[in-house]
Write a structure and sequence with these properties.
Order of helices and strands: HEEHEEHHEHHHHHHHHHHHHHHHH
CATH class of the largest domain: Mainly Alpha
Shape: flat
Distance between the termini: 24 Å
CATH superfamily of the largest domain: MetI-like
Structural class: mainly alpha
Largest sheet: 3 strands, antiparallel
Strand content: under 5%
């Protein structure tokens, strides 16, 4: 009995396919280099071009002004990206010819660099238009800028062809790219609504931008905002308030009470459990202002307020000023009753999804309700617990709406003010007489770092890698 082993031969692309990406990439690189010496922007007054800027001038010249003193253009190093991209494209092309083939990383590099450079060039042109509007003149793109756009487009298309060539040489790569293609819409949303805003926040935190100097050129100040933040007298108090708010609300309500409610509502009749969950959803679906007005009516100062009226009916002589004497109690309760409903729904769905046969077998073996919860239900809720704990932690870190409406961060000085509320007050409120966008962005970026750190810790504690690992089947 003989057996033959088929040889695995690589599928090599044709020469035409190998060269298709270079046909666009090389001319694009040449145009990118040449356009650096051609007019990028033309400023127009009364139908006559009176000032033209090349890419070299845009990168190295100081602010250019007209004879009347109107500022037209600020120097920016962004223009250096275009010839640099051209050199990188030529280097990658030479490396591909030396190897004799292109890899997927060649294509990804060209696509990424082309898109990033395109964004920066577009921002530069937009900035020029804004400055021209202030100077009551017009700006139009020159031949160099049009060439840059064409070169960047050719670079991106050439990179795409390189990736296609790599998939023909490595068929397994095609499946990987298909998977990434399915994930691309979600990745695009993350890029647009999280990664890019975080980068903008970081850049903004390194500037002195504020409403007081908004009409003037703002400058990069390095880490001055962070030094100012960490040297703030109330920094330790605000940090402590944040962790107290997150830990108490998360432990007692968003996870703790949510889990208790889910266990209770899934161990009674379905109709009663459904009605009970609907009642707990009411705080979440109630508008924030209406919800806080109701709570403020509960805790009004004596002799008003529903709680104080109940105390008076039962003969109580002392009626406390609740928001002054126990502000944290109500801050945690107000946020907790809203947060508990989210975890309750997630945990209830997870408990209902547990096979009934498992529960029945445990009961037949004589397990009590507490033993079933401890040994069956909770271990099977590991994934929902990870999700709810991580999501609610990040949600609490950035939430301040109910605190702002209920106590405003008081009573007194920073009594219940948390990190996100402080960032809001510095950046967007008139808390200090002006909107300090750069300083507020520094507070917000540190909060993003704290949130990312906590999320990473949760993934380690809950052993996320084991949760998503494929089951191993032993071959007998």
């Amino acid at each position: 009995m003989s057996s033959t082993t088929p040889s695995m031969t690589a599928v090599l692309p044709s020469k035409k396919t190998r060269l298709s990406g270079h046909i666009l990439a090389i001319p694009g690189a040449v145009v990118a280099l040449i356009s650096f010496f051609l007019p990028w922007l033309d400023y127009v007054a009364n139908g006559t071009v009176f000032l033209s800027l090349t890419g070299r001038e845009a990168a190295s010249s100081p602010a250019i002004t007209t004879g009347s003193g109107a500022e037209l253009f600020r120097a920016t190093p962004t223009a250096y990206l275009v010839p640099l991209l051209g050199l990188v494209v030529l280097a990658l092309t030479a490396l591909a010819f030396w190897r004799g083939y292109v890899t997927e990383w060649d294509g990804f590099a060209l696509i990424s660099l082309g898109i990033v450079t395109l964004i920066f060039v577009w921002l530069q042109f937009t900035n020029a238009q804004e400055l021209a509007d202030k100077a009551n003149t017009a700006v139009q793109s020159g031949y160099g800028l049009i060439g840059v756009y064409l070169a960047l487009l050719a670079t991106i298309i050439g990179g795409s062809l390189h990736v296609r060539t790599a998939t023909e040489r490595k068929p397994s790569l095609r499946g990987l790219l298909s998977a990434w293609g399915f994930m691309s819409p979600g990745m695009l949303l993350i890029l647009v609504f999280f990664i890019i805003p975080v980068i903008i926040t970081l850049v903004l935190s390194l500037t002195d931008l504020a409403s007081s100097n908004f009409s003037e050129p703002w400058h990069f100040v390095g880490l001055d905002n962070y030094k100012r933040m960490f040297s703030d007298t109330f920094f330790p108090k605000i940090l402590g308030n944040t962790f107290r708010y997150v830990i108490l609300t998360l432990g007692f309500f968003n996870v703790g009470l949510a889990l208790v409610l889910a266990l209770l509502t899934t161990h009674i009749s379905r109709r009663a459990g459904f009605i009970f969950r609907i009642l707990w959803l009411l705080p979440r679906i109630t508008p924030s202002v209406v919800y806080i007005v109701m709570w403020r009516r509960f805790v009004q100062v004596p002799p008003h307020g529903i709680i104080n009226q109940f105390i008076g009916w039962f003969g109580g002589e002392y009626q406390p000023y609740w928001l002054n004497e126990a502000p944290w109690l109500f801050v945690v309760m107000v946020n907790g009753f809203v947060g508990a409903s989210f975890g309750m729904i997630i945990f209830s769905s997870a408990i209902e999804a547990i096979p009934k046969d498992v529960m029945t077998a445990a009961k037949v073996d004589g397990a009590s309700a507490l033993q079933i919860i401890r040994d069956i239900t909770l271990p099977l809720l590991k994934w929902p617990l990870l999700f709810v704990t991580t999501y609610q932690t990040l949600s609490l870190l950035v939430s301040f709406e109910y605190i702002l409406l209920l106590t405003g961060g008081g009573p007194g000085l920073y009594t219940t003010e948390v990190w996100s509320l402080t960032a809001y007050n510095r950046a967007l409120a008139t808390y200090f007489g002006s909107n300090q966008w750069g300083y507020g962005a520094a507070w917000m970026f540190v909060l993003v770092v704290i949130g990312a750190t906590l999320a990473t810790i949760y993934l380690r504690v809950f052993r996320f890698d084991d949760l998503v690992a494929e089951p191993k089947i032993d071959v007998l």
